[in-house]
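Summary for the steering committee. One of the milestones for this cycle was to obtain a three-dimensional model of the protein with manganese (II) ion bound, which we needed before selecting residues for the alanine scan. The sequence and ligand used are listed below.
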Amino acid sequence: MSVSDRAIAAYLGLAIGDALGSTVEFMTPREIKAQYGVHDTLRGGGWLHLKPGQVTDDTTMSLALGESILAQGKVEALAAAQAFDAWMRAKPVDIGNTVRRNLLQFRKTGNPEATYSDHDAGNGAAMRVLPVALATFGQGEGAVRVACRAQAHVTHHCALSDAACETLVLMLQDGLRGADKNHLLHTYVHPLAALHPEFKFRAVRQSSNPSGYIADTLQAVFQSFFDTDDFRDCLIDVVNRGGDADTTGAIAGMLAGALHGLDDIPGVWLKSLNADTSRACAMQAAALFRIANL
Ligand code: MN
Ligand code: MN
């Protein structure tokens, strides 16, 4: 399996997880079970009344960030802030509170770095890290971490969010190189939990109803990712926990896509994803990857 094949799978995986999870966002596992049995179809609906295969902010913010990286030839905070601002003006279907607040602040100050706050520990910066992972593939760890923080701090300037974003990007890059799950667990997830015990994902009972708090989100993602063996099982497991299901789906989808590759994504999901979104994700994955290899 080629690295660029995995990169495309990661981007489509993000969009598919978003589209699948958005149907059951903010529902409890019990409500999901009553309504769908096991939710495993890109059927749209949900609180946002989406069309089947339609994605939300997780994917569209990633695409906006990716566009800015392609235009600059690198990850650049001001360009990212301007891209997110333009994205917000275009009236996206959903937007997180922290994202909105800090983008409004950017409009006032022109400073692309939000004020530091331990309270801004939502998952809004982590859900859109994939373009950074692709564009900085092959760079040294220090440079990768700097790029992670530049994009994240536009809306989430917070130590816990930073730790999550950097860990996810390094995991994604090793996944693209063909690393196995055990390697990812020992190299990245255990050290993350040692530094920030909030991310310990075995200490808690099976996480259901994960909130938008980044530690809740990653606990659910890690439980599903490390306890399943393929893309489909991972995504079904994580979105049926409900809660912030489009975002747990998006993050699990990019990880599982990078690790398992395009052939492991069910054809029916690839076909059901909105065609324009699918094209944009595949094209951007390839283009960002070219930047990394310049
Ligand atoms: Mn969303
Ligand atoms: Mn969400």
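Key point for the committee: The chain is about 60% helix and 0% strand.
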